[in-house]
Amino acid sequence: MRGFLRKHEQKIYGAILIMLLVFPLIPLVSGQAMKGRDTALWLARIGEIKEGFTQGNLSWFPSAELTAAYGSGTMAFDHALWLLVPAALEALGMGERLAWNLFMGLLQLGTLGAVFYMAKALFREPAAILAGVWFYMSCPCRLYVCFDRADVGAALVWMLCPVLAGGLIRLCRAGIKDLWGWCGAVLGYGGLWYADARLALLTGAVAACCLLACRRIRCVAALAAGGALGLPAVIYLLRYLLKGGMQVWNLPTGSIMEGGYMPGQYLTAGMYRPDQPGLGLFLMGALLLLAWLRFSGDGGRLPSYVSGALAVAGILTVCSLRYFPWDWLQRLGLPFLRYIGLLESAGLFWRGANMLLWVPAAWAVAKLCKKDV
Question: Strand pairing partners for 71?
Answer without folding.
Answer: none
